[in-house]
Structure formats: structure tokens, C-alpha cells
Structure to design on (199 residues):
């Protein structure tokens, strides 16, 4: 299943003001074929992707790169301005999610840039960051990709109420533990395969 391609295709189709049936007619396929592409249960072959790019008026490389981004190796990021927290937290995330690509950031701008060029499945965000708030970073990440799961990290439980209003999936007190992370993975808005135990 490739959710990234399906989301990209649906977004492009809607931007062009086309229904699934209209796109199907232009592609010489059935509406159910387009529906399967948009649910991620089927992926068009290279010839169909080339035809889609022509019908939608977009660069074929946009669709090809979207089709290459698989959900099977999810990108997970951790943003905290204290290196010590990253040093302790990143190995725990890798232990719990062995199939994920886990990347840490102390600089929020770098994290946002990363999210623009890599589909982030899950972001662990410190709430109190040096120059900004993790709540604001969450909003930016969700603007880039509304299907990014966000879990807040903090040493202060009083932030919990503010955190829920941003569309986050969860909230964890520092320091994190493997069991805490596993518990959060059970409550994600958009679950994904992590390669961890029990999956």
C-alpha cells in the first residue's frame, strides 16, 4: 500500500476540478481503477503514471517519486533543542521501531525542511523549544502533511491541554521509555507498520 501516492493523486485531481469518473474517462480506465489508486490498494504502472502526468498537467517525476515513497520504511523524527534528550531518545525509538528511519533535530527549521522533502509518518516534538513552541512546529508539520502523527514530549504535564488542541496523537513525559513509546504507537491517528514486536 502506498498512501503517499494515493494522497498525492487525489490532491492533484481535486486541484484540477476533476471527479474520479472524469479522470477515469480521460485515462481510458474505469472509475473503480482510479478509486483503487486513491485508496492506495493499487499502484499504476509506469505507462499509466506517464499518462496521468499528461492528463493532470504535472511533471512525471512528481508522480514517479510519489510512487517510490513506500509506507514500509516510515520516516520518524524527534525534535528537541537539548542534544542530551536526542542522544537518549533516538536509540529507544530505533529499538521500538526497527523498520523506521529515525532522525533527530535540535533545529526546528531543519526539521521543517526535512519534512518538506521526506514524508514524515511520526514526529516526537519537545513543547518548549529555544526559539519557538512545539505546538507551532506541529501546525507547520500538519500543513505539510496532514497525515503526520505528532506526539509531544515535555517534562511539564500542565501543557497537555494545549497539546490536544493542535491535532496531536499523544503526549509523553520525559524521559521516554520503550514502553511509553509502544503505548503511544497504539493510539496514533494514522497507524503505520513499524517493524516492532507484536506487529
Amino acid at each position: 500500500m502506498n498512501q503517499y501516492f494515493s494522497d498525492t493523486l487525489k490532491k492533484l485531481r481535486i486541484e484540477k476540478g476533476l471527479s474520479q469518473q472524469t479522470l477515469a474517462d480521460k485515462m481510458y480506465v474505469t472509475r473503480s481503477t482510479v478509486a483503487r489508486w486513491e485508496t492506495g490498494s493499487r499502484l499504476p504502472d509506469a505507462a499509466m503514471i506517464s499518462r496521468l502526468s499528461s492528463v493532470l498537467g504535472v511533471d512525471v517525476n512528481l508522480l514517479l517519486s510519489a510512487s517510490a515513497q513506500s509506507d514500509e520504511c516510515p520516516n520518524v523524527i524527534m525534535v528537541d533543542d537539548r542534544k542530551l534528550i536526542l542522544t537518549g531518545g533516538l536509540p529507544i525509538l530505533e529499538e521500538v521501531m526497527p523498520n523506521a528511519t529515525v532522525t533527530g533535530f535540535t533545529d526546528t527549521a531543519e526539521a521543517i525542511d526535512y519534512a518538506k522533502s521526506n514524508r514524515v509518518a511520526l514526529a516526537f516534538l519537545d513543547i518548549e523549544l529555544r526559539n519557538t513552541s512545539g505546538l507551532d512546529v506541529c501546525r507547520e508539520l500538519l500543513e505539510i502533511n496532514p497525515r503526520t502523527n505528532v506526539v509531544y514530549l515535555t517534562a511539564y504535564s500542565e501543557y497537555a491541554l494545549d497539546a490536544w488542541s493542535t491535532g496531536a496523537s499523544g503526549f509523553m513525559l520525559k524521559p521516554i521509555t520503550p514502553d511509553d513509546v509502544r503505548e503511544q504507537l497504539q493510539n496514533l491517528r494514522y497507524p503505520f507498520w513499524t517493524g516492532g514486536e507484536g506487529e
Remarks:
- The two ends are 16 Å apart (CA to CA).
- The mean pLDDT is 87.
- The chain has ten helices and five strands.
- The longest helix spans residues 83-96.
